[in-house]
Amino acid sequence: MSGSDVIQIQLERHESAVTVAHVTGDIDLSSADAFREGLAQGVASGNAFVLNLDGVTFMGSLGFSALVETHHETERRNIRWGIVAGTSPIIRPLKITGLEQVLPLYPTVPDALAALSGSPLPPAAQ
């Protein structure tokens, strides 16, 4: 099975000029390269982006490693980004490993978009 059979990444450009990458499927050995390539394209754009992982059903260590590498690269290049994993099964491993304290996590795509576009969140969402 090729990585394209396991993972899909759909890009959505928002009016705030932030791109949202909606990821679905399993991020495992067979799809880790495709996931890493998608992250690299997000960084290469130089624009703020949101990685929506709510559709991810499994993430192996290579996927978590790619998230950390992306975080370091976005910091180095001063690119704003965020990860949405509020309903994904990967939120638990992020908490257990302590990556929740390091990576820019948001509970929902609207929360991430508001933070990255500079718009204040409505009081009920804060």
Strand order of the largest sheet: 1-2-3-4-5
**How many angstroms does the end-to-end distance come to?**
42 Å
Work out the count of structural domains.
1
Q: Any idea of the CATH class?
A: Alpha Beta
Structural class: alpha/beta
Helix content: 40-55%
CATH H-level superfamily title:
STAS domain
CATH topology: Transcription Regulator spoIIAA
Question: Based on the structure given, which CATH architecture is correct?
Answer: 2-Layer Sandwich
InterPro entries: Anti-sigma_ant (IPR003658), STAS_dom (IPR002645), STAS_dom_sf (IPR036513)
Protein name: Anti-sigma factor antagonist
Domain STAS: 18-116
Family: Belongs to the anti-sigma-factor antagonist family.
Describe it for me?
With 126 residues, the protein is α/β, with parallel strands linked by helices. It has one domain (17-116): Transcription Regulator spoIIAA, CATH 3.30.750. It has helices at 3-6, 32-45, 61-77, 91-97, 109-117, and strands at residues 7-13, 19-27, 49-59, 81-84, 105-106. Helix 2 packs parallel to helix 3 (61-77). The chain is globular. Residues 120-126 have low confidence and may be disordered. Belongs to the anti-sigma-factor antagonist family. One of its GO terms (molecular function) is anti-sigma factor antagonist activity. InterPro entries: Anti-sigma_ant (IPR003658), STAS_dom (IPR002645), STAS_dom_sf (IPR036513). Residues 18-116 form the STAS domain. This is Anti-sigma factor antagonist.
